[in-house]
Amino acid sequence: MPTPAIILGDGINALTAARCLGRSSVPVYLLGSDNNDIAYYSRYVKVLEQAAAGNAPAVIAQIRKVAKTSANKPVLVCAADRYLQVLSSHREQLQEFCSFTIPSRTAIDTVLDKGLFGEFCEANDLPAPRSWAPETKRQLDECLDQITFPVLIKPTIAHNADEQEFQKDGEFAKMILIENKSDLDRYFSELKRHGANLLIQEYIPGPDCEHYSYYSYRNSTSGELVGIGFQKTRLHPIHGGAGSFIEYSDSAELATISRKLLDRLNYTGMSSVCCKRHQHTGRLMLHEVNGRLPMGHATSLLSNINFPYLVYQDALGAPIEIQRRDSGDHKWIALGNDFDSFRKYRRAGELSTFEWLWSLRQVRVCAEFGFDDLRPFGFFLRNRLQRARDRFLS
Q1: pLDDT (tens digit, 9 = 90+) per residue, 342-380?
Q2: DSSP letters along 159-228, please?
Q3: Residue 300 to residues 39, 308, 348, 364: CA-CA distances in angstroms?
Q4: What angle do CA 327, 29, 365 make, to 5 degrees?
Q5: Contact in structure between 116 and 110 (CB atoms under 8 Å)
Q6: Conformation bin of residue 37: beta by default, left when phi > 0, alpha when psi is -120 to 50
Q7: Cα–Cα dist 308/246, whole Å
Q8: Where are the domains of the chain?
Q9: How far apart are CA 258 and CA 243, in angstroms?
Q10: How far are the Cα atoms of 215, 241, 305 from residue 274, in angstroms, in the given order?
């Protein structure tokens, strides 16, 4: 039997990773925190008992369970920041019975902590918005003479946002746009009451379609094995979320700035460098790095690049062949997220129903759908119908 892979994470990110590996004849196990998740319905997945990333001993015990039944060390493929932190903190213990490729502790700490990331960019003369991390109201007031509105409030550690009730108008938000001092004081006080660690960051002006990502895989012997640029045409949540509608971008500027950052970090493994083009200066500004499989990683299939299988091969020390092709005008979509975002873009007057429907004609990869793996799409439709019924009854 081929060496198994264990995907750490949930959601469409884990689902698309499972399909990428399963279609390459790799036995796939899934370890996440929600056993009623779309990824668990894939025909390619063998489900382990759920283990939240906050419970590292349980995560390690489930991984060990697979290792005991495998002739070779199973390969770990990370699809969520919480599990990336577990891998980094317990790497020596895990390396005894499984294989994986991740960067150094310093690199992981830098990409997971937005405060450290801002300091790193400043120290290395990399273009990034200024940021501040006040702990108290007094420290916040001391920053005000440096702050020009609007600004963003973000959780310092992004994957802690939901636990710290990071919300705007009663809805989960990855970040909150603040227009004035009064709102800054209000949100700062509210979020601090829930124990949130906050970062205040300059806002990069420009529409959502000016968000870009550079997906790449690097190892310690060959450097960058492959790197591909993508444009996030739409986001979820809108105005500050993950890409829900993504297409290929051949921006040389994006590749150059991303490689410079990763070189300075001495980065190895999978990454997604995220930038936004400043509306007034035209310059790409760095705002974060994902140190694991990004949500839209399956966009790379449009260019014949299978990132999860690349991670798997490199962890095994197998020879790697890269055969890229032109992806044309084809698009990737996370249908559920994109539909939710479309409704908000429409209310904001930024996207009409016709424009949204017309854009779907170029979709070639849908996160929820697979001709060879239909159960996740059935689960997705059932949940959507349930949500529609609940809204109607309420």
Answers
A1: 999 999 999 999 999 999 999 999 999 999 999 999 999
A2: GGTTTTT-EETTEE-S-EEE-SHHHHHHHHHHHHHTT--EEEEE---S-GGGEEEEEEEEETTTEEEEEE
A3: 19, 10, 30, 11
A4: 20
A5: yes
A6: beta
A7: 18
A8: 5-100, 130-202, 208-378
A9: 18
A10: 9, 11, 19
Query: Using one digit for the tens of pLDDT, what is the confidence trace for 249-284?
Result: 989 999 999 999 999 999 999 999 999 999 999 999
Token output for 247: 């297409």
Percentage of residues of the chain with pLDDT beyond 70:
96
Distance in angstroms (rounded) separating the CA atoms of residues 136 and 143: 11
Query: Which two tokens mark 368?
Result: 């929820």
How many Å apart are CA 103 and CA 155, to the nearest integer? 23
CA distance 88 to 102: 8
Domain 208-378 classification at class level: alpha beta
- Compute the half-sphere exposure of residue 254: CA atoms within 13 Å on the CB side of its CA: 24
Question: How would CATH label the architecture of 5-100?
Answer: 3-Layer(aba) Sandwich (3.40)
Alpha-carbon distance of 176 to 158, in angstroms, equals 13
Is residue 329 very low, low, confident or very high in pLDDT (cuts 50, 70, 90)? confident
Cis status of the peptide bond prior to 74, with omega within 30 of 0: no
The amino acid sitting at 223 is G
Would you mind telling me the total number of residues written for the chain in this entry? 394
CB 290 within 8 A of CB 214: no
Average pLDDT taken over every residue of the chain: 92
In CATH terms, the fold of domain 130-202 is: Dna Ligase; domain 1 (3.30.1490)
